[in-house]
Amino acid sequence: MLEILNKIYPIFLSENTKKRTEKLILYVALLGFFVHLLLILLSRYNIQGFEFKSEFFQNPISAVYTPFSFILVYEVYLLIYYLPKSFTTYITKQYEIITLIIIRKLFKDLSNLELNSSWFEIKGDLQFTYDILAAVILFYLIYQFQKQGVRKSDQKRRNHSKIERFINRKRIIAVLLVPTFFLMAIVTFSDWLTSISFAEELLPSFETINNLFFDEFFTVLILVDVVLLLISFFYTDKFHKIIRNSGFVVSTILIRLSFSVSGLVSTVLIVSAVLFGLSIIIIHNMYENNSLREINNI
Question: What's this model's pTM, rounded to 2 decimal places?
Fold first, then answer.
């Protein structure tokens, strides 16, 4: 099993594969951006009979939504890439993905802002205010989360054989996730293409497009986090580590729940998820530091 893993793993998740994937995604993102701009131009001037009623084809600013969608695809790949390497970085990537989803949504909302004195009475403008504040708060919370993660990883590790076995099991999960998410993306995109129509009454709502793929993506992540939690029981019985891993599962569930609601409730759930994860890792590190002091005092 280990030999098969060592052969497959570099194909999907080596440094070289990561660089090639990054370059490919950047080219596709640029192409998507210019194609979206072209469609907006065709629609605005009704060239060759093209006239799209969707809000995605009314303002050039909304074209930024397309490259951001491809950047999010790359972030999904990075999440899988870092899963075997660092559990904290893996969780950080989850937080970065949901933050980028909010940023992507802001570009769409920017193109539809109604700039007048009734700002706080207009639902769209009000949601834009919530999201832009949430993006800043999340950016700061993720920064603090990364600091706590670095602090944890700097601590001395013991029992390398157990750690190696745990890493190998995470590599197996990562290898399985690559084709899983790839197939999910293809199926989701194919279903969306078959259902889409440029007729105004048949266009999917923005919320449907914004949640496309990622609601199912975070559902799978919940299952992955639970599997990692159960596997971790084989390697540690320390209370604070069990609580940390369980807390990260709860955090992922809160993010997933944000896709089932809209407006302010969705934004609050996302911020609460990251804040909860940050609180968990801060308390976990306090436990770790206390354990180190007790060892040094013996």
Answer: 0.85
Q: Judging by beta carbons within 10 Å of its beta carbon (0-12, 13-18, 19+), is residue 80 exposed, middle or buried?
A: buried
Fill in the DSSP letter of residue 242: H
- Distance between CA atoms of residues 219 and 251, nearest Å: 12
Answer whether 240's CB lies under 8 Å from 283's CB.
Answer: yes
Q: Where are the domains of the chain?
A: 2-111+120-153+160-292
Q: For the chain, list the strands marked E by DSSP.
A: none
Q: Let me know: does 42 contact 208? Beta carbons within 8 Å.
A: no
Instruction: Give the residues of the chain that fall short of pLDDT 70.
Output: 1-2, 48-56, 111-112, 117-121, 151-161, 192-193, 195-211, 292, 294-298
What distance in Å separates the CA atoms of residue 61 and residue 109, rounded to the nearest whole number?
9
| C-alpha–C-alpha distance, residues 216 and 2, integer Å | 30
